[in-house]
């Protein structure tokens, strides 16, 4: 692609990105509730992570209270590590799977809410 075509397409995107609620396209108008729901879930997970960090930093939650048994602590740490190693690549690969793509093409809003609601906790699990 030539630089002229790239700059021309960028200009088109910049001009079309200033959409208001009045002149939203039909597709954007139907996806708006799904976006709001997923944004709400993202904010809730982030607030939960911040609350946990603030709890430990303010000594409201005691560090190591549940770690009296070393074997249990080791098992919990290994479980967290395995979940992190497995869930993040799965969440990133999920939207590339053919079954997921078919579902998103068939019903965009419900598919986006379903798979977005599944992939957000997988990605944000590492914050907790």
Description:
The protein is mainly alpha-helical and 128 residues long. It is 76% helix and 0% strand. It has helices at residues 3-16, 26-57, 70-94, 98-106, 108-124. Helix 2 (26-57) runs parallel beside helix 5 (108-124), helix 3 runs antiparallel to helix 5 and helix 4 (98-106) crosses helix 5. The model has no long low-confidence stretch (mean pLDDT 75).
Question: What's the topology here?
Answer:
Elements: H1 3-16, H2 26-57, H3 70-94, H4 98-106, H5 108-124
Helix pairs in contact: 2-5, 3-5, 4-5
Feature tags:
128 residues, mainly alpha, elongated
**End-to-end separation:** 43 Å
Most strands sheet: none
Whole-number average pLDDT? 75
**Shape summary:** elongated
Count up the helices: 5
Category by helix and strand content:
mainly alpha
| Helicity level | over 70%
Q: Give me the Rg, rounded.
A: 21 Å
> Spans of 5+ residues with little confidence (pLDDT < 50)?
none
Summarize the entry for a quick read.
The protein is mainly α.
């Amino acid at each position: 692609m030539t630089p002229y075509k790239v700059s021309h397409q960028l200009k088109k995107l910049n001009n079309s990105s200033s959409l208001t609620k009045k002149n939203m396209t039909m597709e954007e108008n139907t996806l708006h509730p799904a976006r709001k729901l997923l944004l709400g879930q993202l904010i809730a997970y982030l607030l939960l992570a911040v609350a946990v960090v603030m709890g430990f930093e303010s000594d409201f939650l005691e560090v190591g209270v549940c770690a009296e048994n070393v074997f249990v602590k080791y098992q919990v740490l290994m479980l967290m590590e395995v979940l992190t190693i497995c869930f993040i690549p799965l969440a990133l690969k999920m939207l590339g799977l053919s079954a997921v793509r078919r579902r998103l093409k068939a019903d965009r809003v419900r598919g986006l809410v379903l798979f977005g609601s599944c992939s957000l906790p997988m990605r944000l699990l590492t914050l907790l």
